[in-house]
Automatic annotation (TrEMBL):
It comes from the Bacteria. Pfam families: PRISE. It comes from Frigoribacterium faeni. Residues 70-362 form the PRISE-like Rossmann-fold domain. This is NAD dependent epimerase/dehydratase. The lineage of its organism: Bacteria, Bacillati, Actinomycetota, Actinomycetes, Micrococcales. Coiled coil: none annotated.
Amino acid sequence: MTDNQTSPPGTALVVGASGITGTALVDQLTRDGWDVLALSRRASSADGVTGIAADLTSADSLRSALADAKPTHVFFAAWQKRDTEAENIEVNGGMVRDLLAALDHAPVRHVSLVTGLKHYLGPFEAYGTGNMPDTPFHEDEERLPYPNFYYAQEDELFAAAARQGFTWSVHRSHTVIGFAVGNAMNMGLTLAVQAALSTRLGRPFVFPGSETQWNSLVDVTDAGVLAEQMIWAATDPAGADEPFNIVNGDVFRWRWLWPRLAAHLGVDPALVEGFEGEPRPLEQQMVGLEQEWRDLVAEHGLAEPELSRVASWWHTDGDLGRDIEVVTDMGKARDAGFTRYRRTEQAFVDLFERYRAARLIP
């Protein structure tokens, strides 16, 4: 190393490196000069990034894949959906436990874990029911009296930290918008695909959700802001051993943003429809359009012909169909020194441009 070179901040292991949050983390860490280990199902290496392939649900696979890895910081941004919350707990709690156990030889100083607002809203099986805390949600709220895989992940993190001697942070994001393909929770790309198909078929670009979501205040999380908070917490003593909410910092109403997003996606204003009487879920609106998408891909020379890899109808329906207000307090992170902010409309616009550049939407 020459005199004008500086040492990297550390070696970062990004778990779930091909997902929305993982992609943003790898991008930001490499820009900041870290050595990056990118763990996913299929190893993918690039300048400054060493890919590691492993099955997160297999302790043996993790132990083998990480035998020679020596990360100083771990960024855990992976999860897998199962049919019941008991299965979610077993699988997702197990992934955190086995991943950290496989690193018991490594000089890990900090582990950042992504969870989400189901910490306050409840798991899929009891979502938005019972006595939820008032909005905006604060980090010091008591856990809800339901089994929840986020709680299981936290408990595995706390146990490993006590055992292995690292600090930790938990990052409770709202709907995360960012760049990825084949992701199970991808509102940004899903809405862009809905717009493209609606335009092709001359159908209305319909808001699919509830009257409450249409009219209430809401917020979302840009993946880049989430990545920056995770890196901040991993490297600033003020971020150690704390949970933090993470959203963009602005609030909006879908009745304001929906027509603006439609304009950015090139939808004819005459085709834009808001809430009218009852929710109109995307899983019903967009059923049976797989061949229409393939035809659209062929006509525009796009890169992904499988509709299921670019649209997660069920997840966007779940977010926009809630009959409750969801707003998140960012005061704790602000007081600790994390002041990053992102305008949500611009975050969507930049994301649509990135998807166009990657030939994923017309």
